[in-house]
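Quick start: what a row looks like.
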Amino acid sequence: MDTTGCVAMSQTLSEPALQTEPLDAPPRRRRWTRWPPYILLFVVFFWVADIGISLLIRHTRLQKKLTARLESVIGRSVEVGRYDFSLWGGPALQAQSVTFSDDPRFGYEYFLRAESLTVKLRWQSLFRGHLQLGTISLLSPSVNLVRNADGDWNVAEWLPKPTGAASGGVGPSHPAVRFGRIEVDSGRINFKRASEKLPFALVNVNGYLEPDGQGRWTMNLEAVPTRAAVVLQRAGTIYVSGHVGGTSSRLRPAVLDLAWSDASLSDVLRLVRGYDFGMRGNLAVAMHADTESDDWLLQMHTELRQLHRWDLALRPDNPALNLNAKMTLYPLGPGLDVSEATFEAPHSWARARARFSWQTPAGFQQPSKSQIASPDQIEITQSRVDLNDVLTWIRAFHSDVASDASLRGSASVHAGLSVWPPRLTSAAGAISSADLTSTRLRLPAHLGQAQFRYDHQIFTLLPSTVSYGTSDGSLHLETIAHAGPREFPTYRVSGNLAQVRDLVATAGVLGWNISRGWDLAGPIRCDLRWQGAKFPWQTQPVGTIEWGGESTGASLLTPFLNQPVRQITARADLKPELRHITLTSADAFGARWIGTFDRRDADTGWQFALTADRLATSDLDRWLNPRWRESFLGRMLPFLNSSSPGNAVPENLRAQGQISVDQFLIAPLVIRHVQSDLKIGGRHVQLSAAKAQSYGGNLEGSVDAQLAAVPSYRIHLDYSGIDLSALAAMFPTLDNLFAGSASGGLTLNFHGADRADLISSLECRGNARVTDAQLGALNLAESLRQGEVAPGSSSFNEASAEFACHDLKLVFQRLAFVAPGQEIAGSGWVDFGRNLDLRLRTLSASEDDTSAPGSAHALANGTCTLTGPLESPTIKAVRQSPSEP
């Protein structure tokens, strides 16, 4: 047997077995599985170190050493509530409830107070045994920025000098910067002027401040402005970026960019003045500032959008304005010089320059020589104003301007204004021409070339003309200068217009209601002058005004009349202490009027004397009754009417005088030759000492009317010698029923806005005496004797009665008919439907004493009742009881 092959086979089978590890050997560990214990150990170490170092700081003298180190680094004394230490994210020291005191030169209030101050420590300083600060983070800090009497700011003195900065200057030296960055979160900055705390503040301050290694501090901050005791809704956000010097008490050198965006103009005005002046709009400001020596060079761009009055709706054409300005601020002046400013509107522009200075507050030292030598002023040097831009400003701040109004033309203005209080000191301008159009205007209004000047409180206007069309007349405007240099000029308006309503409509298109609800139309001529005042609206005019022309008169509609007064021909003579109007003719209340009106400046109302040919109560009702102004729909659906009083008599109307009416008609009654004193006091109208003639007799009386929402009236009338036959003839149903001469008195009270209300509310009381009285179609004495109607007539020497009316009835008391040898007495009523119910008794005079009226006794046939229609009554005898006299 070959042993060599066996050996080779055995070697082949045995080699793999020798290279394979035993089956029960443990597997090798992977390297990453070894790290978790070490990481956990490291975390526990850091956690223990955090807690341990924090406890070490709190319970050892290390807390005082850290506070002393912070004081040396910050340059202010520091109070800390407690310290915490953290190694997470790098070594950091956190101070809770931190307060930094201020330099005594700036007061004794704190300089900075924060909920927490976190300081990033540098590893190198820890390894070397020094406390060198990295980034300082302030949470909810509150900073007081103070400017003292020397003009220094406490923040500038607080900022330490950057490394390598020059140490020149006389101020106190500070250690080099030992921290790299200051971060602010949700901070607040207050401002003080010496010991006075200003109402302004910046809240929600966020950003950072850090040295840039060139002796400057770089900053990037944002804040929201606020003012104490003022509620702001959209004050906007202020962004500040750039760099300032840290080696000077006045932060020089400096280059800053400031932006104020998303601010409401009303809130900005509340911030500045504490009041928004009723303006609305949006404001955006961008400013670049850098220093030159002690001065600041400023470049500003301001945008104002959607400007309008607070109670007017926002419109697409609300004015917009851009302002670009180059300025120099003199902190030592103190003052501001605006070397170049440009105002830009959509179609207008103006260039201006200005100088501002302000007094140094109490406690501040004023520099010996101000850098601004000229007085405060704002000067507009050049301008080109599109008048349509002016119209948009008027529409944005004045109500009732016509929405479709268009003003074409241009003007140029040069003006000077005082800074505060803002007022115009001088101005000169020219308007090439102007044309105002609107659907409210019958014809466009045209203003010719006009030049004006304002200087030393004197306004002068070169002759100019306002016209409507080519043949509708024109008004000439001018000022007449006087010899004295300080004497106010005379303003004059003269000319004629074919339609004065055009002038009223022109003012109405621009939003000025010069008519005050009075609609005047027709031709007018005038020659008016205003003198003795700076502006014409500050004094009363003198001159003449004539209404009406040869062929047509003027018309006037007042708020308290339903119809206009037509065909007015009148002339007004206006003198310094007297206004006299001569009314040649006017058609009103259905009558033709003539008369005069006078008013003295010392009087409270007008004095007048008016005469009319014919006047009727139906016309008065049609002109004065407020229900005549209601529409058909308003009468059918009265609940749709407004709650305001229908009667629109003005409360301030005051007038008194005499009025004469040749014929006054109270249908169907006619009163002639009416003369009375009339007094009007707002809604109170009094007619006194009235005298008239009617139906052969005389009338005297008075009327008192309260023209409120529900008018009320009181009338007292004394009458004598009235012919009853003539009076009854005016009523077809009463003709030939009564005769005699009547005298007596009557008082009536009623109220209401229409005829039905007046009649239903009527109350009266009076008495009557009739001599030679006659009753037609009835022999009253015989009818009472027979107990039935006896045809014929009745005659009495005298008849008398006392009566009252209410509930649509005329109630008689002590009714008596007296004839020779007999008397008929009675009582009862007659309603407004001419139905009667009377109780009558026949009496005869006593034979023992026939001279004593009233001593009578009942006849044998007793008492009767008279009932039914007044034209054909029914008589019925009433049986007397034994006890009845």
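That is the whole record. The chain has a mean pLDDT of 81. The first helix runs from residue 3 to 19.
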